[in-house]
Amino acid sequence: MGHTLPVERIGVRELDQNTSQVLGLDRLVAAGRAVAPTNGGPVPLPPKLGDQNEDVAATLAAGRAEERW
User: Fold this and answer.
1) How many separate domains does the chain show?
2) How far is 12 from 20, CA to CA, in rounded Å?
3) Which domain of life is it from (predicted)?
4) Dist CA 1 CA 4 (whole Å)
5) Range of 45's domain?
6) Does residue 4 lie within any of the structural domains?
7) SS percent in the chain: helix, strand, coil, step 5
8) Does position 3 have pLDDT exceeding 70, yes or no?
9) What is the rounded CA–CA span in Å between residue 27 and residue 50?
10) Using CA atoms, how far apart are residues 30 and 20, in angstroms rounded to an integer?
């Protein structure tokens, strides 16, 4: 059986406005357990399902190539 730790409840607004403090990102990065994000801003939405103007395979391949470097 695994160990269950108590979890603090945090509201969506608090999480949205203070994400790094809530998640302790700086501490995790310093400990080598996480990598700080390199891009800022919103996460792009995926292509719309069935959009004939979007080459989904090419978009995925480009994203994967970018992640590796």
Assistant:
1) 1
2) 13
3) Bacteria
4) 9
5) 12-67
6) no
7) 40, 0, 60
8) no
9) 42
10) 13
